[in-house]
UniProtKB/TrEMBL annotation:
Annotated TM spans: 84-104, 113-131, 137-154, 166-194, 295-316, 328-346, 352-373, 385-406
Organism: Haloferax denitrificans ATCC 35960
Keywords: Membrane, Transmembrane, Transmembrane helix
Top-level taxon in the UniProt lineage: Archaea
Record's protein name: Dolichyl-phosphate-mannose-proteinmannosyltransfe rase
Length: 547
């Protein structure tokens, strides 16, 4: 174990990690608002704007973790209803993720800490989804922070780390439903490490420390109770409803605070179990191997160096004379458990699932990166040209693979060839809809609706989409619903040609499925049609604009 650095002033390693976080922020802010919103991002933006308007917020598992709304609402309020503002808090967290490496400094050498931070800052999948308005990077990031605080607590670095651990666990759960899966996978890794410490002959000293940990626990009742209070406080703040302009219970509404706390502690669990376990979509199950194959494909594309270096470090560390390092083993076990359980328990196969494997693997990959640089430096000092060349070639290969994926996936326009973009990401052409909608809609200061959604697949009764859960047809409006809502435009629906003809006036913008174009066009004299794909392929819509 590396000697403790507790109480030291920030040194060059800490400053280097902070500089990496600053560079990671720049990388994540470049073009942050360029790409049109994914359906999931649009859903977050829409409900955040609705919550800002009404003050109402209630945890609904189908709408994601509550933390994403606590982050997006103030950003939209401060910076306006833009794609950039919606993604900004998630980009800030993604950029701050390398700072979590500092929690592991008592276990890692300085160059290993720096290597760990480099992987967290630069891996393409963490860059792509670290600037994406979903809770996945938040969930696995807080799980990583919990891992760091747990190690520090086990090493006796101070009981205050228990409070950090408790808060991180609560925030991971509040970030996403998969945050629970990430924490469970981390728990599996911890159990495996302790089991090996007790059974492997080479790990007997670690087994002897189990008694030391038990002795600490006997005198830790008060700090444990305080940590539990920290967890409950953070959890209640995240999950408690806000009544707003409704007559329900709200955390800030006098007389209903106890009801809000009850809803946070108990209703949130019932809702989560009801949606994610009892009534799981789709129909409670899915094929496992295709989901696993998709995840492996994502890792091969965007994290192959991390996987290969992490696996090599795990094997070398495990079979060296000094025995396995528990932090390396735990990180690899965590990644392995995530590889097994995340595709099993997720409801949608998507590239963002890769973050649940890459984040824990970043630790052994960082150790391996530091070892490679160390090896090359020794070769340079000894003038061993072949070894220097080998080290340079390997490092260049790692950098080239990362740079190639970043340039072709992270910043390139979304199209059918984009591997890191999920199906519900509109193609680059959809930017025309976003950029022109304000001019098409015109003034929005009267009571008449400015946008009409046509067709049974998009029909939602007025008022039925004010709060989640909403009818399935509302999902067919994504991501348009966000762009309409951020303009302050009112919308309405018509399911049939007769309903459209019966209207006294037709709004200046009519949106319909592309296969309804022939039905709607004859009813809209003087309108110009524009067609867009709201996904990477398929699900085309036609937008009729009054000329």
């Amino acid at each position: 174990m590396i000697p403790s650095r507790a109480g030291r002033r920030p040194d060059r390693t800490a400053l280097a990690v902070v500089a990496l976080a600053a560079a990671a922020l720049v990388v994540r802010l470049v073009g942050l608002g360029d790409r049109p919103l994914h359906w999931d991002e649009a859903r977050v933006g829409y409900w955040s704007l609705r919550s800002l308007e009404t003050g109402f917020l209630s945890y609904r598992p189908v709408a994601g973790g509550p933390l994403v709304y606590h982050l997006s609402r103030p950003s939209l309020a401060l910076f306006g209803a833009t794609d950039f503002a919606l993604r900004l808090p998630f980009a800030l967290f993604g950029a701050a993720l390398p700072l979590a490496a500092l929690l592991f400094r008592d276990r890692l050498a300085d160059d290993e800490t720096l290597g760990f931070a480099v992987v967290l800052a630069a891996n393409p999948i963490l860059v792509y989804y670290g600037r994406f308005a979903r809770g996945d990077v938040l969930a696995v990031g807080f799980a990583l922070v919990a891992f760091g605080f747990a190690l520090r607590l086990a090493d006796g670095a101070g009981r205050r780390n228990a409070y950090g651990l408790a808060a991180a666990v609560a925030l991971a759960v509040a970030s996403s439903g998969l945050g629970v899966v990430a924490l469970c996978c981390l728990g599996v890794a911890g159990l495996l490490v302790f089991d090996h410490a007790a059974l492997l002959p080479s790990a007997r000293p670690a087994a002897m420390r189990l008694g030391e940990y038990a002795a600490r626990l006997r005198g830790a009742a008060t700090p444990a109770a305080r940590a539990l209070l920290v967890f409950v406080a953070v959890y209640v703040f995240a999950f408690a409803p806000r009544a707003g302009d409704t007559d329900g219970a709200g955390l800030y509404t006098p007389g209903t605070i106890l009801g809000a706390i009850d809803a946070a502690l108990f209703d949130s669990v019932r809702r989560f179990v009801g949606v994610r376990v009892v009534n799981r979509y789709p129909e409670g199950t899915h094929e496992y191997l295709p989901y696993l194959g998709d995840l492996l494909g994502t890792l091969a594309l965007a994290a192959l160096p991390v996987v290969l270096v992490g696996a090599a470090v795990f094997l070398a560390d495990r079979y060296t004379a000094g025995g396995p390092r528990s932090e390396v083993s735990a990180a690899v076990y965590w990644a392995g458990a995530s590889l097994v359980f995340v595709p099993m328990l997720t409801e949608v196969s998507a590239p963002w699932l890769g973050v649940y494997v890459v984040v824990p693997l970043a630790l052994p990959a960082g150790v391996g990166l530091a070892a490679l640089v160390r090896w090359g430096r020794r070769a340079f000092d000894s003038r061993d040209v072949p070894r220097v060349a080998a080290a340079v070639v390997v490092l260049l290969a790692l950098v080239a693979q990362t740079g190639a994926v970043a340039s072709s996936e992270v910043y390139a326009p979304s199209d059918r060839d984009a591997e890191l973009a999920q199906f519900a990401q509109p193609s680059g052409e959809f930017s025309s809809f976003r950029d022109n909608l304000s001019a098409w809609v015109g003034p929005t200061d009267d009571d008449a609706p400015e946008v009409l959604y046509y067709g049974s697949s998009m029909y939602v009764a007025d008022g039925a989409a004010d709060y989640p859960p909403v009818p399935d047809a509302w999902g067919e409006r994504l991501p348009m619903a966000w762009y309409v809502e951020r303009l302050g435009a009112d919308s309405t629906s018509a399911a049939t040609p007769g309903a459209l003809e019966a209207r006294s006036s037709i709004p200046p913008v009519v949106i319909a499925p592309a296969d309804e174009r022939g039905t709607v066009a004859p009813l809209l004299d003087g309108y110009v049609a524009h067609q867009y794909d709201t996904g990477l392929w398929g699900r085309s819509v036609v937008v009729f604009v009054k000329n």
